[in-house]
Amino acid sequence: APTLRLRGGGRGARLVFSCSASSSSPSGEGGFSGKVGFLGLGIMGAPMASNLINAGCDVTVWNRTRSKCDPLLSLGAKYEPSPADVASSCDVTFAMLADPESAVEVACGANGAAQGMAPGKGYVDVSTVDAATSKLIGKHITSTGASFLEAPVSGSKKPAEDGLLIFLTAGDESLYNRVASLLDVMGKSRFFLGDVGKGADMKLVVNMVMGSMMVSFSEGLLLSEKVGLDPNTLVEVISQGAISAPMFSLKGPSMVKAAYPTAFPLKHQQKDLRLALALAESVSQSIPTVAAANELYKVAKSLGLADQDFSAVIEALKAKEQSK
Ligand SMILES: NC(=O)C1=CN([C@@H]2O[C@H](COP(=O)(O)OP(=O)(O)OC[C@H]3O[C@@H](n4cnc5c(N)ncnc54)[C@H](OP(=O)(O)O)[C@@H]3O)[C@@H](O)[C@H]2O)C=CC1
Ligand SMILES: O=CCCC(=O)O
């Protein structure tokens, strides 16, 4: 029978109806009792893995830079020296890597996760990559007899800490059902979108909208200031109207102060625009606003802002003004 359980592993934890560990829902979902691997402990991976540990999961971690494992080991995680070792010692392994190249290397490279995979195991890639990359990883994983699910996330550093991410999944539906309770520890909602590639596509469409919105917002902040308005008032006005968005209210005040504490690195936003442009190209769709936004993120990268928050794209506009 359904029971009340804590959902969301972090500060956003809340009670929702779910299934107890021993029962299963009509869709085959149930609690997860097995060993969980986590590869990639950057801005997103570290809090996601922390939430799994804090929810009582048996978690084994690996990260290219070994020192980033230490806070997780303090929370009770185990360590293995390679992705292959994590995968062979765990039932299900999550991966949260920077980009297509690193996601492929960690899954399919030397000592990659695929080498530790076997029938009965699962690999869940939560990195933001393009559909072709996801399919390639899926092919390597499933060739071992293991199952594959792509599950990129919407939501940034704070939602990751609070267990309030949105999972955009696709691939093996039985694996989706098997890891549902783990996704519910890390997130507030989950979508199953079909075959491998559909989750990646959805994520890129969402992020291309976000990247263009941020450029438009930046232009508005600068223009308001130039015509003698207080940009803080613009942030307030926007927050009360139809184009209100948490992103503007969250980032606006620090952008006005030219501060860009990193939640979503600018280099990753530019990567997502690059991948979204290729996606649009694959179906001959023109996305001129995104193309223009992408150029600004590239300028921002060339200004040394790659590791700042993506809201630092406003500095590329300022640089254009100064060079007039
Ligand atoms: N930050 C955000 O708001 C969000 C990010 N995303 C996506 O999630 C993914 C991770 O983002 P985020 O955590 O912010 O990024 P970070 O840059 O903080 O972390 C990237 C991770 O990838 C690892 N990595 C990079 N290159 C390699 C490589 N060649 N081999 C092995 N490992 C590698 C890094 O290891 P090391 O520590 O050694 O550098 C690190 O663990 C990206 O795809 C991003 O687009 C999705 C939603 C929100
Ligand atoms: O990929 C990053 C997404 C960030 C967000 O959804 O706030």
CATH 4th-level superfamily of the largest domain: NAD(P)-binding Rossmann-like Domain
Oligomer: single chain
Gyration radius, in Å: 20 Å
What hetero molecules are bound to the protein chains? NADPH dihydro-nicotinamide-adenine-dinucleotide phosphate, 4-oxobutanoic acid
Shape: elongated
The name of the CATH architecture of the largest domain is 3-Layer(aba) Sandwich
Give the distance, in angstroms, between the N- and C-terminal Cα atoms: 68 Å
**Total domain units:** 2
Main structural class: alpha/beta
The overall pLDDT, averaged over residues, is 93
Helix content: 40-55%
Count of helices?
13
Unreliable stretches covering 5 or more consecutive residues: 1-24
Main β sheet profile: 9 strands, mixed
CATH topology of the largest domain: Rossmann fold
Helix/strand order: EEEHEHEHEHEHEEHEHEHHHHHH
CATH class of the largest domain: Alpha Beta
The total count of strands amounts to 11
Strand content: 15-25%
Characterise the protein shown here:
Residues 197-316 form the 3-hydroxyisobutyrate dehydrogenase-like NAD-binding domain. By secondary structure, this protein is an alpha/beta fold. The chain folds into two domains: 2-194, Rossmann fold (3-Layer(aba) Sandwich); 201-322, N-(1-d-carboxylethyl)-l-norvaline Dehydrogenase, domain 2. It has helices spanning 45-54, 70-74, 83-89, 100-108, 131-142, 157-162, 173-186, 198-226, 231-240, 246-256, 266-282, 288-302, 314-322, and strands spanning 2-7, 14-19, 35-39, 58-62, 78-79, 92-95, 122-125, 147-150, 153-154, 165-171, 187-192. It starts with a strand and ends with a helix. The structure holds NADPH dihydro-nicotinamide-adenine-dinucleotide phosphate (NDP) and 4-oxobutanoic acid. 4-oxobutanoic acid binds at residues 128, 154-156, 207, 264.
